[in-house]
Amino acid sequence: MEKVSVIIPVYNTEDYIKDCLNSVMEQTYTNIEILLVNDNSNKECTLLLERISKQDSRIQLFHFQKRGGVGAARNFGIEKANGDFIYFLDSDDYLPNKTLEILVKNIKNNNMIHGKIKSTYFNSGMAIILEGLYKIKTYSDEKYNLIKNNLVNNFLFKKEFILDNKLFFFEDVEVYTDLTFMVPALINTEQVPHIKEAVYFKRKRNDPITNPSLSQMDEYIKIKDFLYIYSTLKNIYNDELANNFLDEHLLNFYRKDIVTYFKQSENIDPLFSQLVKTLKKVDTKILGDQDFILKREAKKIIKGDIDKYKKINSRHQWLRELKGGLKGRRRFYRFLYNRLFIKLPIKQEWVFFESFLGKSYSDNSKYIYEYMINNNMKFKYIWSLNEKKDIPGTPIQVKRFSLRYFYYLARSGYWVSNSRLPKYLTKREGNIYLQTWHGTPLKTLVFDIKDIYSADPNYKKNFFVQSRRWDYLNSPNLYSSEIFRRAFKYDGHMLEFGYPRNDILYKKNTKEYILGLKKQMNIPANKKVILYAPTWRDDEFYGRGKYKFNLQLDLEKLQNEFEDEYIILLRMHYFIASQMDISEFEGFVYDFSDYDDIAELYLVSDILITDYSSVFFDYANLQRPILFYTYDLKKYRDKLRGFYIDLEKEAPGPLLMNTDEVLDAVKHIEDTKKKYEYKYRAFYERFCEWDDGNATENTVKSVFGKE
Ligand code: C2G
User: Fold this and answer.
1) Any atom of ligand 1 within 6 Å of the Cβ of 177
2) Is 598 a pocket residue for ligand 1 (Cβ < 6 Å)?
3) 358 pocket-lining for ligand 1 (C-beta < 6 Å)
4) Contacts of 309 (CB under 8 A, 6+ apart)
């Protein structure tokens, strides 16, 4: 049995290295040695490596005293390797257990063999391997397609081949060093078999802001390194396939990365001169085959005329955007927003409101707006709503993502929203953006979240860009202020007055008002009300922004027990797209998922049942009983999100795991209340301290002045 040397460079991947190593130790192909090269990682990671390397005698651990980079670490690994084969694995990636076996079995008399790379966001990747049905595709003329992704990963090499051809990684680049190894490797080999059953899981890292992976490095470094590598590799071998690959690869890189970078960057001069030298090396025939826009730009670059280049590039940019804009209505509006509307004079007296992505007239935005109209402030108001609504003050209503939406957003002097606005809507100078946010966090937020299980993989990156635009942020309590600063990386103005949306819980908590609300809601006034308002689950969705909810409350049981005394209001989170069929519980269960303002539902209810939703922080202002129906607590807390507070210790009510427990807690609600009295008080003091009915007034005065 021949030996495989698995070379793993490690740099600060303490969150992932265990998964990675386990996946190697569990390989069905057992004759392996694992060369762990610690590239001067932090202490935590180094200590972890020392600990786990003792688990298996096949692991050898080496430490660099100075950071050498991934290229240096791999070269070092090759030097130390005793195996017949070499395999490069990155320390945040991992393998299904058969990968090495399949590669070794099928390499035969080839110099190298390649398997499939699959990207995943978290470690639950599964590879389905059908024994004996391997389909091998052999690449010869198209062999460079195998490195279009710039990766050396999931190639198994014969070590002899590496030594004979003196293959090595450049050590003076931070990114794309794989190309410096792979291009000469492919030049020296006729053909490469590819077998898709040999899978390699490449982890897509979700936090490019705090902890970037190599591919998420600063664009400037990426471009600099790419141009350098291209220039060094081009033409040193008289190999047509390799040279063509390098040319095509450079031009694609120009289109994708360089153009975008030049568009955003103030000073392109240092890279431009490097680009001039580089583009001169591109084969004229290949250049001639490119589209008209690229050809014109390349001409100016080759001439070294930076001013002319900038001019035509910005014109082309316009054309590119228009081309994109013609692909659909919304994209055309976006084009108009950025290229036209935003250039019209700003209207300082226009205030643009939105709440929960235009789904409702509610939350902090609603109360801020109503305060402003009730105090006759001299502004013109615009509301973004998906459906036209009958709302006080007759503001201009625009449908979210309609042409008017983009027009009014672009010109408004103020934006008020309780959640994010799309990333592509650049904020103009002079605009003031009040982000009210929408809840005290229980579930960890943005940069405090380790893995992202939700439907939007670019969550953190987008969030960072979007939140840089906030000028003011409402905070409901000191606890939230501290979290928001860290988890949003926010260092702007914090409005620490409590939540505008909770003022109503102090100002309108009267019998008459509640009776009026019940009438208006068309629910019986002679019965007590239980509000069930759960949150959404990150891992249960139909598609982007469309989440599922499986009702786990046995409504029939509750009906049998409580029909005479209570009614139930069901209130799904605004992300939930599932429709509830509650027709058989008519008169007992009411669906209030589409009701605009949950604060009014709080007022009419006698008991709240929730789970991990921030609704309980707000409801606590009423000091009425709260029950937690947390049937999936373990999974939700430990796998999906993680919590900021220990619910089991601090929740102001019992955690219930099935309908019977819920039933029992409601039945003995007075006992439940008594039992939690002390915890409730402590909770109230900590989280409701600032709410006193004046948060809206204080917010408006801080942001819009006194008038
Ligand atoms: N909400 C609602 N109905 C529900 C759940 C929530 O109307 N069934 C509203 C409440 O105003 C709540 C807000 O949406 O405060 C946020 O809901 P969460 O369930 O807490 O979830 P999420 O939208 O993920 O926000 O810092 C807060 C967090 O970001 C949570």
Assistant:
1) no
2) yes
3) no
4) 272, 297, 300, 301
Helix 43-52 with 17-25: angle, nearest 10 deg: 20
For the chain, the average pLDDT equals: 93
Question: Is the CB of residue 501 below 6 angstroms from any atom belonging to ligand 1?
Answer: no
Structure tokens at 188: 């020296």
Q: How far is CA 335 from the centre of its chain?
A: 25
Burial zone of 498 (CB within 10 Å; 0-12 exposed, 13-18 middle, 19+ buried): buried
User: 313 falls in which pLDDT band (50, 70, 90)?
Assistant: confident
- The protein residue with its alpha carbon nearest to ligand 1, atom 26, reads 441
Q: Tell whether ligand 1 has an atom less than 6 A from the beta carbon of residue 535.
A: yes
Rounded to an integer, the average pLDDT of 679-703 is 98
Which ligand 1 atom minimizes the distance to the CA of 618? Answer: 15
- 7 φ, ψ to 5°? -105, 120
Question: Dihedral sign, CA of 701, 499, 346, 265?
Answer: positive
Sorted by sequence, the CB contacts under 8 Å of residue 93 that are 6+ apart come out as 16, 20, 153, 200, 201, 202, 203
Helix (H, G, I), strand (E, B) or coil at 335: helix
% pLDDT > 70, the chain: 94
Distances (CA, A) of 526 to 512, 515, 623: 14, 10, 21
Chain centre distance of CA 436:
20
CA nearest neighbour of 463 among 686, 249, 209, 110: 209
Cα–Cα distance measured from residue 61 to residue 53, given in angstroms and rounded to the nearest whole number: 7
Query: In a mutational test of the pocket of ligand 1, which residue from 362, 541, 614 has the highest number of ligand atoms less than 8 Å from its CB?
Result: 614
- Angle subtended by helix axes 329-339 and 403-411, to nearest 10: 20
Q: Give me ligand 1 centre to Cα 439, in Å.
A: 6
Instruction: Tell me if 9 CB under 6 Å of ligand 1.
Output: no
Residue nearest to atom 7 of ligand 1 (CA): 598
Q: How far is the CA of 534 from the centre of ligand 1 (A)?
A: 9
Which stretch of 24-38, 215-229, 671-685 has the lowest confidence by average pLDDT?
Answer: 215-229
Q: 500 CB under 6 A from ligand 1?
A: no
Tell which atom from ligand 1 comes closest to the C-alpha of 598. 7
| pTM for the model | 0.80
User: Strand 85-88 to strand 4-10: parallel, antiparallel, or no bridges (unpaired)?
Assistant: parallel
Mean pLDDT check: name the lowest of 126-135, 197-206, 650-659, 693-702.
126-135
134-156 confidence digits (pLDDT tens): 789 999 999 999 999 999 999 99
Residue 213 C-alpha to ligand 1 middle, in angstroms? 32
Q: Report how far ligand 1's centroid is from the alpha carbon of 535 (Å).
A: 6
User: Which strand (E) or helix (H) includes residue 155?
Assistant: strand 155-158
- Confidence (pLDDT) at 434: 98
Identify the pLDDT of residue 384. 98
